[in-house]
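Fig. S4 source data, part A: sequence.
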Amino acid sequence: MVIAVIGILAALLLPALARSQQSARRIVCLNHLKQLSLSAVIYVADNDHYYPSSNSPDKWPQALRPGYQQLGLLACPEDRSIVSPPQEAASADLAPRSYLINAWTDYFDLLPQPVEFEVMPDSFIRQPSDTVVFGEKEEAQGDFLMDLRTANQETVLEQTRHTGGANYALADGSARFLRFGQSLRPVNLWAVTPEARQNLTP
């Protein structure tokens, strides 16, 4: 009888425990993105109000490195492709990574082509609390950029890692959880131009 009661209690408690562990990992990921977002704010303030170049030899993890200390911030604890804690590396670009940065392609498409050195000023962002800087990427994908020109939203952007949604960092230094699709519709939060924000480019 006692064993049966223990079995019933375990059956009731284990799913709740699993959900609480998932929630804790989602919060850790959210905190990682918030710290990366703040490191981007620091970078922009120190670099004439421009975001890191998307075509520089140093990708964003290395460019932003002065603003964060631990390479572990680049990894979401729910990312199953990262099996061990990141080790110190000569470049943060070599560290395991769960996130990708906005490529700002709708902004660069406005400029005379070709654009030799792709940097975007933060002054172009009209709605910083609703403009995504970082999102989560699919496991084991090597992309550094969320590029709307290449339909990354369909192939590389991870939108369901945390029980039907994912975490995002925003241009004002905040971070939030969004359900599947909410970073893209009805408003494309990856875009900075009014036209692209209202119409997702396939």
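Fig. S4 source data, part B ends here. The mean pLDDT is 88.
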